[in-house]
Amino acid sequence: MKAAKMTASELEERLAREFPQGSYGKRIHIEAVGQMTARLRYTVNERNLRPGGTVAGPTLMGLADGAMYVAVLAHIGWVPHAVTTSLTINFLKKPKAIDLIAECKLIKLGKRLAVGDVGIRSDGDDELVAHCVVTYSIPPHGH
Amino acid sequence: MKAAKMTASELEERLAREFPQGSYGKRIHIEAVGQMTARLRYTVNERNLRPGGTVAGPTLMGLADGAMYVAVLAHIGWVPHAVTTSLTINFLKKPKAIDLIAECKLIKLGKRLAVGDVGIRSDGDDELVAHCVVTYSIPPHGH
Amino acid sequence: MKAAKMTASELEERLAREFPQGSYGKRIHIEAVGQMTARLRYTVNERNLRPGGTVAGPTLMGLADGAMYVAVLAHIGWVPHAVTTSLTINFLKKPKAIDLIAECKLIKLGKRLAVGDVGIRSDGDDELVAHCVVTYSIPPHGH
Amino acid sequence: MKAAKMTASELEERLAREFPQGSYGKRIHIEAVGQMTARLRYTVNERNLRPGGTVAGPTLMGLADGAMYVAVLAHIGWVPHAVTTSLTINFLKKPKAIDLIAECKLIKLGKRLAVGDVGIRSDGDDELVAHCVVTYSIPPHGH
Known about the structure:
The structure is a homotetramer. By secondary structure, chain A is α+β, with helices and mostly antiparallel strands. Helices cover about 20% and strands about 40% of the residues of chain A. Chain A contains 2 helices and 8 strands; from the N terminus they run H-E-E-E-E-H-E-E-E-E. The first copy, chain A, has helices at about 10-20, 55-75, and strands at about 30-35, 35-40, 50, 55, 85-90, 100-110, 115-120, 130-135. In chain A, the strands form 2 sheets. Chain A has a 6-stranded antiparallel sheet. A two-stranded antiparallel sheet of chain A has the order 3-4. The longest helix of chain A is centred in the middle third of the chain and has 20 residues, at about 55-75. Chain A is globular. Chains B and C meet through loops of B and loops of C. Strand 5 of chain C pairs antiparallel with strand 5 of chain D, so a sheet runs across the interface.
C-alpha cells in the first residue's frame, strides 16, 4: 500500500495544462485519489452515444485507461511517459446516457510495472457497465 | 470460411450514412473485406497524438473495435446492434504519426458469438504497433 | 449482491464425489463462500514446481478457473455444466513453494453470464502472485 | 521474421531431459518449429476429461502456454527462465476426446518481451477449440 503523492486537484490541473487537447478538466474530472485508488467522472454528451442512447465502447476503454493513468501518476508522481502495455475489458451492460464513474484500484505498483483494475458504472447505479484490467510500463524516473 | 455479404464500399457508405457523427467515410476508410477478413485505414491527425508524436492508446482501441465491427457486419450483413463483449489489446511499439492500417481476421463466426484478432500497424511498416482480440455478441437477426 | 446457496463444505463434498479424478477434497479445499465470493486453498507439492522452486503457471490458471467455478456454483446452485468462456491472467510475482490462496469475487452474476476476478497469493503473504478475470457461460437451469 | 535456432527434436529432447516431471516427450510432442512458429501435439487421456467427454480448460491453457514457450525458445535459443507474464484465452467450442494440436505464431519477438497467439484445435478438425494470446518476459541472456 502506498499513499498518493499528488492530490486529485493537483493532478487534474497538471493534466489539463500539459495536455490541452485532452479531456482533463473538461469532460473528465478526477474526483478522488486514495491509497492505491483513483476515481474519475466522465460527462457523457451526445458525441459519445451509439444508436439506442448508449455510450460507445471506445469511450469506456479510453476512460478506463485514463483512470489507470491517473492512479499510477497519483502514486509515483509526475511521470507522464508511463504507457499502457495491455488492456482487457469486459462489457457488462449498456451504459445509460448519464455520467460515468470509473474507479481504479492498483493491484501491483512496482518500479517498472503497474497493474490495476477499473470498474465503470453509470452515476447513481451500483452495477458495473464494464470491468477492465490495465497494465502500465513505468519508465525509469527520479522520484 | 464464409464469404462477405457486403462489399467494402457498401459498408462504408452505410456506416457513414447511419452514424453521421462517427468516423466512417471521414477518417476511417474500409479498404477491403475478404473471406473472414477486413482492412481499415485510419487517417491520423494531431488530435490523436500524445506527447512525443505518438498515437493515443484509445485511438488504437477504437480502431481495433471498428475493424472487428466491420468484419462482422461484412459477413453477417447489416446487423448494427452487434456489440463488443470483450477486448484485449497488447501495445507492441509506439505508432508514428502516420496512417494506421488495421487488419481483422475472424477466428470464429457463430450465430451469436464472433471472435476476431486485429493487427494494427503504421502504413508502410510490417511490424505491428498493437494486437487485439475482440469478441462480439450478435443479436438474433433475419439474415 | 446474492447470498450463497451452497456452503463451502457441501460444495467441496459434491465436487469431490462427482469429479473423483479432480483435485477437490484432496489438493484443493474450499475455505469459504460468502456474498459473491469464494476462497480456495491449494496445497502445492513438488509436481507443480518449476525450476527455481516456483509454482507453474498452468497450476495458477487452473486454480483461478476453479475459484470462479466454485463461486458461480455456490451462488446459482449445482449447475455443473457452467463453462469457462474466457480467462485473462497477469502473473505478478513468483509464488513460493507454499500453499496458494485464491479469492474470487463475482463482478457480475447474470442468468447466462458470470464475470469474476480472482486474486492468488501465497499463504501468509499479502501481495498477489497472479490476478485473473474469468467469464463463465451458465446453461439454462431450473434453480 | 527470425529463423529458428533449435529444431523441434532438439528442443523436445532438451525439455524432456531438463524437466523430467513435465510432459515433453511424453504427452506433448513438438511437431514442428518454423519461422516465428511452433506446433505441438497433445495426447488426450481420460485424466484430462470433464463430464461430457470434453477436455478440461486448464489443459488447454497449459498447452497454449507450452506452445508459446516452445516457440520462444526455438527462436532465442535455450533460455529456460523465460516466463509467462500474461495469457488471455477464449474458449470457442468443446474439444473432443482426441489429440489436440496447438499452433503458435510469434507476433513480436523483442529482446525482453515476446507476444504470440496460439490456436488450438482437435486433430483433423479445422475449427479452433480455443484461441490464446500469451506474453513472455525474456531475461537477459548471452545468445
